[in-house]
Each structure stands twice: as C-alpha cells, then as structure tokens.
Write a structure and sequence with these properties.
By secondary structure, this protein is mostly helical. The protein contains four helices and no strands. It is elongated, with a radius of gyration of 24 Å. The protein has one domain.
C-alpha cells in the first residue's frame, strides 16, 4: 500500500467522527493500519538492502573479471565485463535511491503513528487537545525535503562514479 492510499484511508477513518468513542475507534483502526504499513516498509527495506548487497557483489565480480581479462590481453572478455559492470553500477544506484525512499516512508509512517497514538490517548481520557499545526502538512514538507536531499546525494554519487570510471579508463586512477 502506497503512502497516498494509506493517507486517504486514515483520513476516511478519522473524518466526521465527533463522538469521542467513534473517534477513539477510528484512531485505533488507523494505528493498526500504520503498524501494518511500518512492518511492510521494514520488510521492503530489508529486501532492498539484501538485493543491494547482492548487486554490489556482482559488480565486484564483473570488475574483477575485467581486470583478469585485461591482464591476459582478452579484449572481448574485458569489454563484456565492463558492460556488465556498468549495468550493475546503474542497478546499485537505483537500489540506493529506492532504499532512501523506503527509509523516508518508514520515518513518515512512524511519525504518523506517534501523532495518532497521542491523539488516541487524548480521545480515551476525554482531554480536549490544544489545536496544533497540521501534522500532515508538516510531514509532507519534511518528506519533500528528505526526498530532495536523497535525490541530490544520488546525483552526486552518480557523478562521482562516472568521474571515477572515466579516470579508470584514462589510466589516471591508481
């Protein structure tokens, strides 16, 4: 379930309930949904991190094969190894961005969980909460800032990798 779908479901659960018990029930249901979403995000993060580790190993293997081919003068094998290495580098970059986004989503879900948990406590005790800034808008701004930062870092890393590759091709990387 994506964040937009989760947010829409939470809004439906919490909208229109002015009765304290109904609101507490809606908050409880929303907390269950968030807990499930957090678990799914953690699972996806673990799978992506494992996939990244495998892809890094494949890149290392392809680069090693390319060096071995170069040492014995096998240009064709070296060319093929470099093609595979380039594909693995691209996949690694993609997986790193994916992991970054999953971490951002998980942080968002955990913040929402904390906010709704506090609201549930207030609803159960009958406390009249003090109006605060809309946590969804604030979370959206934080998520956008984190996403922008992650994209910038990914672009910088890609540029660094391309520069390293060019240096290697020119024989300047020792």
């Amino acid at each position: 379930m994506g964040l937009d779908e989760l947010r829409a479901r939470l809004d439906r659960m919490l909208s229109g309930s002015h009765d304290r018990r109904q609101r507490a029930g809606g908050l409880h249901d929303a907390l269950v949904e968030l807990k499930v979403a957090a678990g799914q995000s953690r699972d996806a993060l673990g799978a992506a991190e494992q996939e990244l580790a495998v892809e890094r190993q494949r890149l290392e293997d392809a680069e090693r094969r390319g060096r071995l081919a170069a040492n014995i003068g096998d240009a064709e094998t070296g060319r093929i190894a470099e093609e595979f290495a380039a594909k693995h580098r691209e996949r690694i970059e993609l997986l790193e961005r994916k992991i970054s986004v999953i971490r951002d989503e998980l942080a968002y879900v955990e913040r929402e969980y904390q906010t709704l948990h506090a609201q549930l406590k207030e609803a159960r005790t009958g406390a009249n909460p003090v109006p605060q800034a809309d946590p969804l808008e604030e979370s959206d701004r934080e998520l956008d800032a984190l996403r922008w930062k992650a994209e910038r870092e990914a672009r910088e890393e890609a540029a660094k990798q391309q520069l390293d590759l060019l240096k290697k091709k020119l024989g300047k990387d020792r």
